[in-house]
């Protein structure tokens, strides 16, 4: 054991966060958070709006100033230059070029990551945008835009994919297809960290990180959450867990 009373990081660990404190403005956004994300798995980051999900993701991809604690990603300090090509990050605000078509946006990222043209077409199809491949990104709907942004991250074939609410605004069929895609990626060895504030997505995940008001309430599997609370519905299980842990 080390001085944080946690086992050492192993190569099976993609992300190792220890004793993380983050302040944003006057808010304490994260308070003493320690989590371990296993490689080749889907980890869901769940909790109510404002609980700190995006802040934890930003800390992991290295864009957040942290007050104290350590964040290790694929064995390196978060934000290390050599992680840039190994980590994909999709924020809630799509960051793509509005004047370029979907294909040209994805091709740009494919070129950065030395990926073949076939990967571009395959990725555009995978996010359900084949029929909009030649549409300028500026003319897409909100849901299409976020899928185009997702394609830009997917095409690089990163080892770690950090996705901030990737299924918001998508219809049920497309959501199901995307979760199938995420599962296929995890089975191929990619690590996915996916945030959501809707608990019905939690069943797609191998493990859940439950956050509330900047604190980690629990790290467990969906079945463990049901067993610990006796609630078949994950939504109710989360509420019960919060009430038990906080005495609310
Ligand atoms: N730019 C900012 N400046 C100051 N405080 C911020 C800033 N961004 C977020 N916060 C605060 O930090 C806390 C955590 O915010 P964060 O965006 O991480 O939550 P979240 O769980 O991702 O929320 P949501 O589900 O609504 O996206 C909140 O109290 C929020 O008000």
UniProtKB/TrEMBL annotation:
<dbReference type="InterPro" id="IPR003593">
    <property type="entry name" value="AAA+_ATPase"/>
</dbReference>
<keyword id="KW-0067">ATP-binding</keyword>
<dbReference type="Pfam" id="PF00005">
    <property type="entry name" value="ABC_tran"/>
</dbReference>
<dbReference type="InterPro" id="IPR017871">
    <property type="entry name" value="ABC_transporter-like_CS"/>
</dbReference>
<protein>
    <submittedName>
        <fullName>ABC transporter ATP-binding protein</fullName>
    </submittedName>
</protein>
<dbReference type="GO" id="GO:0005524">
    <property type="term" value="F:ATP binding"/>
</dbReference>
<feature type="domain" description="ABC transporter">
    <location>
        <begin position="15"/>
        <end position="238"/>
    </location>
</feature>
<dbReference type="InterPro" id="IPR027417">
    <property type="entry name" value="P-loop_NTPase"/>
</dbReference>
<keyword id="KW-0547">Nucleotide-binding</keyword>
<dbReference type="InterPro" id="IPR003439">
    <property type="entry name" value="ABC_transporter-like_ATP-bd"/>
</dbReference>
């Amino acid at each position: 054991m080390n001085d944080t009373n946690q086992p050492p990081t192993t190569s099976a660990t993609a992300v190792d966060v220890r004793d993380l404190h983050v302040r944003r403005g006057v808010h304490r956004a994260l308070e003493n958070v320690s989590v371990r994300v296993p490689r080749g798995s889907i980890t869901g980051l769940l909790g109510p709006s404002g609980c700190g999900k995006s802040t934890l993701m930003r800390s992991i991809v290295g864009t957040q100033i942290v007050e104290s604690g350590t964040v290790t990603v694929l064995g390196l300090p978060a934000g290390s230059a050599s992680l840039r090509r190994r980590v994909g990050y999709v924020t809630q605000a799509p960051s793509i070029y509005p004047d370029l078509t979907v294909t040209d946006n994805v091709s740009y990222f494919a070129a950065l990551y030395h990926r073949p043209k076939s990967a571009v077409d395959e990725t555009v199809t995978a996010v359900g945008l084949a029929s909009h491949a030649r549409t300028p990104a500026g003319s897409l709907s909100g849901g299409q835009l976020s899928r185009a942004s997702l394609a830009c991250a997917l095409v690089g074939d990163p080892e770690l994919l950090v996705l901030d609410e990737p299924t918001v605004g998508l219809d049920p069929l497309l959501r199901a297809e995307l979760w199938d895609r995420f599962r296929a990626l995890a089975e191929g060895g990619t690590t996915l960290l996916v945030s959501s504030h809707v608990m019905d997505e939690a069943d797609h995940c191998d493990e859940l990180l439950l956050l509330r008001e900047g604190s980690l309430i629990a790290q467990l599997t969906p079945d463990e959450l049901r067993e610990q609370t006796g609630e078949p519905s994950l939504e109710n299980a989360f509420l019960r867990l919060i009430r038990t842990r906080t005495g609310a």
